[in-house]
Fold:
Amino acid sequence: MKDFKAKIEEHKKRFEKALSRAKDEKSLQEVRNAFMSRKRGELKLLFEELKTLKPEEKAAFGQMVNDLKIHIQEKIRARGELKVIKKESAVLKASSGKIDLTLPGQKEYWGSPHPISLFQQEIENIFIAMGYFIEDGPEIETDYYNFEALNFPPYHPARDDWDTLYITDDLLLRTHTSPVQIRAMEKRKPPIRIITPGKVYRRETPDPTHLPMFYQVEGLVVDEGITFAHLKGTLEHFLKTLFYEKIKIRFRPSFFPFTEPSAEIDIECTVCGGKNEECRVCGGSGWIEILGSGMVDPQVLKNVNIDPEKYSGFAFGLGIDRTAMSAFQIPDMRFFYENDLRFIRQFTLK
Ligand code: DAH
Structure:
C-alpha cells in the first residue's frame, strides 16, 4: 500500500520539476505528452497499475490518482493561458501602443427611421394605449373633403389661411389631416376614436417654423356625452406623456370653421424658455402653437349624417414637426428635411 502512495508522490514531484523546466511552448507540449498522453502518458500507466490492486486499495488510491490528474491538467492549462496573454502583450508592444484592446468595437451605421417617423410612432403609441385606431387618407383631396364638408363654403375668407397647390379646380394637395375626419365618419358609426397621421401641404415660404410640406396628426372622438372636459383631459394627458410631464401647456380660445367652441394649445418654448426676445422659434413670446382643437361643429356631424342631438365629439390637429422641434430642442424645422446625415444620425434608434 505504502509503495503505491510513494509512487504517486514521485510522479507528482517529477511533473513539477519537468513543468518548471519547460520554458517554451515546445517543451510545455512535451511535458503534456509525457504525463497526459492517452497512450503511454504517466497518468495512463498509473491508472493501469491501479487496476492490479486489491479492491479496497483501489478505492483509496483511485482518489489520489484522480487528484493528481486534475492537478496536472490545471497546471498545464494555466501555463497555456499565460502564454496567450504574453502573446497579446507582445502584439501590443510591436504595434507600439497603436492598438487599444480596451476600446469598444466600431459599430456599422445601418440607417434608421427619419426622426419625424420616430416621433410619429411615439405619438401613435400614446393614442393606441388610450384605445384609438389609426386611420389613413389621401394626400390629394377633393375640395369637398378638404373644405366644404368641414364648413368652409366656397369663397369663405377662412380658406385663405389654408391655401395650397391645386391640381384641378376640384383636386388639391390637402392642407390638413382634417378631411380624414369626414372620410372616417362616413365609414364608421359612433363610437369613433381615431387618429390620422400624415403629410399636408400649404402655400408657405420656408422659415424656422413654417414649411410648405409638413406632418400633422388629427384626432377625432365621437360618442354620446362627449364634452370639452374630455378634450382637455385627453390632450393634457397626451402632452404630459409625450414630454415626460415636463412641459407647460396653455389653452387659448380660437376659431376653426369645423369646431365650436375651438381652442389652440401652446407649449412653452423649449429653445429659449421665454427668455430671448429675439427667439426665432417663439418670436419672444415664450409660447409655440402646436395644436388646434375644439368640439366638432354640429353642422359637420350633419354633413356625414350623424345626429348632433344624440352625439357630440371633439377633434384636434397637431403639427408633428413643430412639436418634434420642441421635444428635441431644434431651433429650425428645415433641418429635418435637409438630409444632412450629421443631423439625422443623432436620432438613430438605440
Ligand atoms: N386642421 C387644423 C389646421 O390645420 C387643425 C385643427 C383644428 C384640427 C381644430 C382639428 C380641430 O381637428 O378640431 O390648422
Summary: Residues 2-94 form one domain. The pocket of 3,4-dihydroxyphenylalanine is lined by residues 176, 178, 218, 256, 259, 292-294, 315-317 (CB under 6 Å). The mean pLDDT is 89.
